[in-house]
Amino acid sequence: MVKAKEAVAKPASSDAKKKLRPSKVKSLAKYETKKKARAAGTLKKKPKQNLLSGSATWKVVYKSGTWRFVHRPTEAKLIAKAKAEGKPLVETPKKKKSIIVKPIKGEKNGETREVHTVKRKAYYPTLKSPKKHRSRGLFKNHKRNTRSSLTPGTIVILLTGVHKGKRAVLLKTLDTGLLLITGPFILNAIPMRRVHQGHVIATKTKLDISSVTIPEEVDDKYFKRTLLKKKPKKNDSKSLFVQKPKTYRPTEKRKSDQKLVDAQVLNVIKKHQDKKSLFLYLSSMFGLRNNQYPHRMQF
To answer: Region entry Disordered: which residue ranges (predicted)?
Structure first.
């Protein structure tokens, strides 16, 4: 048989209470006064401490070659102790001698010898004051230089990218140094786009596009694409179903600008005396065969 455990009642006496530490009693009393002040509405909020002000608990001090945080109360205790002992508050570091004279044994060794305390440098710069180079500032403020052969109206051959091997008409040079080109689109499917000058070959064939007007808004910001959202938001009803990934599509404004510029460029080609050969030239691809080297060719 299992005996039932009898509940033993502990006597509630004042002696049985645990004695609190003096610091604990002090903190409890402080808490009670704070509680009463909060209830009465007379509690004053302490201002936020600023690390740079004198009321801050910590301060930044340069010690032994590095910046360090020093606790203010600890520093105050050390200063008080130094004052009581009569020590100087700021210790002046003793300067080490750079050369020490050491005695040397032996009759013909000169008896003494000068020894350097700090090891000397193995390398010394050739110039005492090195030349200061002027700061060029931000990359966007740099001066852009383009090749003399890349002028508006020049037909260029693309060497990289999706349209490599195709020929296009150079319209103008943008502020970033990139080249604005067009196919025209109806001839070789090259839209208005930017190309780096190092990725094209400039040919000697050139069109007079002085009559072609390019819209003012066609600049570097014009070609900046908007980021497409890949992941749907949480708790979205559309996220339950499989969605096709969004692809980039040109805006209606971009399409209208393309048609406007291409129509003007095509009119210039039609007015040219060799318009048939120019149409074939722009629509054909560029390529090299065996024993053909571009540095030996004239374009």
So the answer is: 1-32, 234-255
In sequence order, the β-bridge partners of residue 181 are 170, 193
Q: Which CATH number fits domain 154-224+249-288: 3.40.50, 1.10.60, 2.40.10, 2.30.30?
A: 2.30.30
Average of per-residue pLDDT across 179-184? 94
pTM above 0.85, yes or no: no
Q: What distance in Å separates the CA atoms of residue 73 and residue 70, rounded to the nearest whole number?
A: 9
The whole-angstrom separation of Cα 185 and Cα 192 is: 8
pLDDT digits (tens, 9 = 90+) for 92-102: 667 778 899 99
**pLDDT tier, 283 (very low <50, low <70, confident <90, very high otherwise):** very high
Residue 183: phi, psi to the nearest 5?
-65, -65
Outline where the chain has alpha helix (H): 22-40, 72-85, 185-188, 252-271, 275-283
Distance CA 155, CA 167 (A): 7
Q: What is the pLDDT of residues 204-219, one digit of tens each?
A: 999 999 999 999 999 9
3-state secondary structure of 225: coil
Residue 17 confidence (pLDDT) above 80: no
Report the C-alpha gap between 297 and 203 in whole angstroms.
11
User: Long-range contacts: 71-80, Cβ < 8 Å, 24+?
Assistant: none
Element (H, E) at 135: none
Rounded distance between C-alpha atoms, residue 140 and residue 136, angstroms = 10
Cβ count near 180 (within 10 Å): 22
